[in-house]
Amino acid sequence: xxxxxxxxxxxxxxxxxxxxxxxxxxxxxxxxxxxxxxxxxxxxxxxxxxxxxxxxxxxxxxxxxxxxxxxxxxxxxxxxxxxxxxxxxxxxxxxxxxxxxxxxxxxxxxxxxxxxxxxxxxxxxxxxxxxxxxxxxxxxxxxxxxxxxxxxxxxxxxxxxxxxxxxxxxxxxxxxxxxxxxxxxxxxxxxxxxxxxxxxxxxxxxxxxxxxxxxxxxxxxxxxxxxxxxxxxxxxxxxxxxxxx
Length: 245
Known about the structure:
- The protein has helices at about 15-25, 25-30, 80-90, 125-130, 145-155, 160-165, 180-185, and strands at about 1-10, 30-40, 45-50, 55-60, 70-75, 95-100, 105-110, 115-125, 165-175, 190, 195-200, 210-215, 225-230, 230-235, 240-245.
- By secondary structure, the protein is of the alpha+beta class.
- The strands form two sheets. Strands 1, 2, 3, 4, 5, 6, 7, 8 and 10 form a nine-stranded mixed β-sheet that branches.
- A hairpin with a 7-residue loop joins strand 7 (about 105-110) and strand 8 (about 115-125).
- The protein starts with a strand and ends with a strand.
- The relative contact order is 0.19.
């Protein structure tokens, strides 16, 4: 059994929800929130990104590429060349390197894809930190997720928001899958070591999807419900649940 970590997840909301999330004052104060258009050699996409300490979440613009599915999960490794072991374990057909513009970004491989849910395993490459705003913190990055998130937040001027906002990390995901896909997911020889992935069966043959994300907060936020377009964010003490469906 190989261990992986949760890097981030994405969901693709409807246009109205994306626009509400972009301008909602509550989310602007929730943490380091950035609207970013990413230009890669293979694709270009726009999303809203909420950066935590070790993980982040992405609302993908509905006009952007969906990476093969409306929602998805990126797993990570933080041991140099740890990706090779995981790719071998899941019998990934190939390993690829992704660049951000002309700057190498990460290496990745994909397990057998499930209907409605994109998944990949990624490992940051040191060249990324040398080529993407090397003047910004951290000063001596490795390949840890926290190093990348610090650089992301610094590049958009949101280090203070990341340190002082409520959002700390994604700790669990609720995912609905078809019966066969749920069996495939459960049989994989990998374990998500730092997040709880809760699988349920999708009803009526509908494709898989991320239904909700459980978040850890930096401090007690009290109890409240925030409607963000068609989604709902429930706050309860030092935890929150963002329901997308």
